[in-house]
Write a structure and sequence with these properties.
Order of helices and strands: HEHEHEEHEHEEEHEHHHHH
CATH class of the largest domain: Alpha Beta
Number of helices: 11
Low-confidence stretches: none
Strand order of the largest sheet: 2-5-8-1-9
Mean pLDDT: 93
Helix content: 40-55%
Strand content: 15-25%
Bound molecules: adenosine-5'-triphosphate, magnesium ion
Largest sheet: 5 strands, parallel
Radius of gyration: 22 Å
């Protein structure tokens, strides 16, 4: 089965999203990288037949990306709305990805729009008042605080998202089911071994014994390279082990030893 987009809803996230949507309560999804956050949101928007507007936050995201900026066309000054204002007016679904990577001034403008009045004053455009249509819906994601470049969100902004979904790495048998969605040949035993390896590395990273925690992207890639005919030991090296060389030979050797014990030489 090569169904790239079919989301496996292993912890009833759609039900929670549905209830939040019906109650017009905005949702925050918390989870480490590669746990299916983006896939979940995309699929939810598809189910609701809503237009999805996405923005991925970083230190470079400016207020103007959200609000808009002045334009000069044929000698006339205009104002082109940014993604936040556009989605409020259109009543689309707005996806604020990694919102905890944004700078404080950007968060302040979000704060204004997301409070119960759901409106914002465009001081940049002569004080125009934008009111969101009632279909407007917002979902944000944050990565756990240990991630580089992430900051704690101010409590008042957190309170704008009163429904919270925690997405973590799935249980083994569920992860196996997810990976099998992306591969055609069945290498169930080998894939399961790759997932066990990933979980050992994740646990070591969680207690800071390793610098990196492999995501579902890696376990899916492991399945795919097996599919391409690569031997399991080599697949484990290229997908799981080699990355640790970035942190030096001691770090790499730790992982290499684990792989040898599981996959042989
Ligand atoms: N429950 C699931 N059902 C189907 N596929 C999944 C599921 N969870 C994760 N995946 C797959 O795992 C990969 C990573 O998922 P995705 O990009 O949605 O994660 P993410 O949490 O948004 O990651 P990041 O924090 O890095 O943005 C994708 O290929 C996705 O389709
Ligand atoms: Mg994502």
């Amino acid at each position: 089965m090569l169904t790239e987009s079919l989301y496996i809803d292993w912890n009833n996230s759609f039900e929670v999203l549905d209830k939040a949507y019906e109650s017009n309560l905005f949702v925050l999804i918390i989870g480490p990288k590669g746990t299916g956050k983006t896939t979940l949101v995309r699929e939810f928007a598809t189910r609701k037949q809503a237009k999805l507007e996405s923005i991925n936050f970083s230190l470079r995201t400016r207020e103007s990306h959200l609000i808009g900026s002045k334009t000069l066309y044929a000698g006339a000054i205009g104002f082109e709305h940014g993604i936040l204002v556009r989605s409020m007016k259109d009543g689309s679904m707005l996806y604020l990805d990694e919102v905890n990577a944004a700078e404080a001034d950007v968060l302040l403008r979000l704060d204004e729009a997301l409070d119960d009045r759901r409106q914002i004053v465009l001081k940049e455009a002569g004080g125009e008042l934008i009111e969101a249509t009632k279909e407007w819906f917002v979902i944000a994601t944050i990565n756990p605080l240990s991630h580089v470049g992430t900051k704690e969100l101010p409590p008042q902004l957190l309170s704008r998202f009163p429904v919270r979904i925690k997405l973590d790495y799935p249980p083994e048998e569920i992860e196996l089911k997810i990976v099998k969605n992306y591969v055609s040949v069945s290498h169930e035993k080998e894939i399961l071994r790759g997932i066990k390896l990933a979980n050992i590395l994740r646990q070591a990273a969680a207690v800071e014994e390793l610098y990196y925690s492999p995501s579902l992207r890696e376990t899916i890639a492991f399945g795919k390279v097996l599919d391409s005919g690569m031997k399991p030991r080599q697949a484990a090296d290229v997908v799981f082990a080699n990355i640790y060389a970035q942190w030096g030979s001691v770090e790499y050797q730790k992982v290499n030893d684990i792989i040898t014990s599981m996959f042989g030489n």
